[in-house]
Amino acid sequence: MRAYRCLVALKGGHHNVNGTPVDFKNFSHQLRIFIGERDTQVFLERLRERFDNLPNFYFDYTVSNGKLSSVFWADEISKLNYKAFGDVLTFDATYSTNRYKMVFVPFTGVDHHFQCVTFGAGLISTESIKSNVWLLKAFLKAHSTQPTLVLSDQDPSMLQAVPMVFTESRHRLCMWHIMKKLPSKISAELFDNTDVWACIHRLVWNVYIKPETFESCWHDLLETFGLQDHTWLNDMYNIKHLWVPAYFRELPMCCLMKTISRCESSNAAFNVNSTSANTLVQFMMCFENRVDSQRYRQRVSEYKTSSTVFKGNTDLAIEQHAFAIYTNAVFMQVQKEIIKGKFLCYITNQTESSNTTLLLDVTHLDKRNNITNVYQVTYNTVDHSASCSCKNFTRIGYLCRHVFCVYRLKNVAKIPPQYINDRWRRDALPKEVFSLSSRYGVNAHAPSVMRNEIPDLVTECVDVARTDEDSLSKLVAQLRDFKINVLSKQPLGTTQNETNECEMEEIVGQPINIPVEVANPDVVRNKGCGTHTCISGPGEKAKTKPPKRPKQLRLRKRCGLYVDDHDSRNCVKVAAMKAAKAAAEQLRQTATGASPSDSNLSFCLLVLCNGRLSSFWPSYTHVIVF
Asked: What is d(CA 172, CA 92) in angstroms, rounded to the nearest whole number?
């Protein structure tokens, strides 16, 4: 349906589209039938074709009992991205992307525009330790180097597989997945009537404290709320080195990602065009389109960085130097640090530890000029090197406002080279990465290249001659002559089925008579298949739903009462009043020779018969004459 709507918009109406929505749905169904049992084989042949035609393309797969078990692939652009931005890696399994229920695992990082970038992807049949170990080894074989930090969720198999493969990396668990379980683990009474939630959050998300400070504050917090014997909190404390930021403060780029939210964002993007009914071939097409879109955004950001003119907010030379070094996204963050270092920071104490080293206490203010904290900066007067106790450069890769405050007072005009992280530079990636020839999944065959070029040429000609009637008529005449010449040499004599088969072969990229060497995988059942309900914890069972907010009493104009259980549409008194009026009108019309006074008396009699209505006309309740 999306393809049909696009063609309707492009061709100017439904009447210009060759086919109905049902035809488009049938073609999609026929495409799945055409792929059929050749699905896995065609999928692998497409990967082999890229391996033969694209430089440095890597893929690997395993077969179990003649059926596909797992597969991994990564192209040259993914490798270049990993080489530049592979210091922090995150991955998370996603489901319902193909008809075989194979688990899709994309490997995601952050580039120098703070955008998600894909380093590779894999499909595995089961989420066992063996499958995850094979997938991680295939990733390591493709990229050759290990990341500094690896993020994942609390999947038990990943907890064992990551240390087995990435022996030189630190494994970190997603903080969000852990903290979202807190309400279901703590009793509802304690959670609702205390500030335990806020206290735990302020403690575990603090990136400035040291491990010993965290441990003492943790024990004090448990003692304050009487949670010393809480099983889940003690279990999380035992693995604190896997998720609490205080234990990663010495690790470079440790605050680039503390959760796997970016990976889940990428997974959601991959799932936009892919459904659980797709074959592996269709899934691969959706994956290629999504990666191509991701790289297009990267090219757009690169162009904006190269074409943006510097607009400084301070008179400091170091700000212009930062603009020349960093991309736009990174410069905006560094610029904030420079501005706050000038207007919200000042030096309160300065001492000399040696002839070339100074120790400076920098006080940090908030927007209301209230002191928030004091940090110590060590400054070298020779090479202008500086280190701050907040460790911002270690955590995120660029200098903090406290160091920029010192540089402003010491008249340092440029950022020292040792504090320029290569991953944030404008030239972090080679220029060939952004060329159109590096698009993901481009068909390098000559007929395909020419077919893609023809619409561009026609569109350019139409745009140039849009208002020139003579030029448009010449273009139309030439195209008609060319059409007549082509049809005279090769008339359209094929049947509809043959035409569909040729089109499907072109879409799939493989002939119909391809021999099948690897069979389709069996449909598997994983934890993400959606057939099981989540097990409720003790906190969830004990937690009662909050009571509904009481409705406010409002004056109903029709009945004149302050109520909250009805309005004029369902008011009983209003309905009875309407019925009484209708009955009185009917009596007045049917009575022969009845005067208005007689009809009024009849209406008053109805009022007396209905006791609930007597309150509306208290002056009529004494009438007893018919």
From this structure: 13
Whole-number CA gyration radius for the chain: 36
Q: Which residues contact 619 (CB under 8 A, 6 or more apart)?
A: none
Q: Which residues of 482-499 are buried (b: 16+ CB within 10 A; e: fewer)?
A: eeeeeeeeeeeeeeeeee
Q: What is the mean pLDDT of residues 201-220?
A: 92
Burial 449-461 (b: 16+ CB within 10 A, else e): eeeeeeeeeeeeb
528, 103 in Cβ contact below 8 A? yes
Backbone angles phi, psi at 491, to 5 degrees: -70, 160
Task: Report DSSP state, residue 551.
Answer: P
For 398, list phi and psi in degrees, rounded to 5: -140, 160
Q: Please choose, from the candidates 393, 388, 390, 363, the residue with its C-alpha nearest in 3D space to the C-alpha of residue 377.
A: 388
Half-sphere exposure of 341 (CA within 13 A, CB side): 26
Instruction: Give residue-wise pLDDT tens across range 13-31.
Output: 888 888 888 888 888 777 7
pLDDT score, position 530? 55
Find where tokens 């809480």 sit.
230
- Do 274 and 97 touch, CB atoms closer than 8 A? yes
C-alpha 371 chain-centroid distance: 36
Q: Please give the pLDDT value at position 146.
A: 95
Question: In b/e form, how buried is each residue of 337-375, taking b as 16+ CB within 10 angstroms?
Answer: bbbbbbebbebeeeeeeeeeebebbbbbeeeeeeeeeeb
| DSSP H or E run through 296 | helix 280-307
**Residue 274 and residue 97: Cα distance in Å, rounded?**
5
Q: How far apart are CA 606 and CA 617, in angstroms?
A: 11
CA distance 506 to 448: 9
From residue 235, give the alpha-carbon distance in Å to each of 2, 150, 229: 49, 21, 11
By the 8 A CB rule, do 539 and 87 touch? no
DSSP 557: T
This prediction's pTM: 0.75
d(CA 233, CA 221): 11
302-337 pLDDT, tens digit per residue, is 999 999 999 889 999 999 999 999 999 999 999 999
| CA–CA dist 86, 117 (Å, integer) | 10
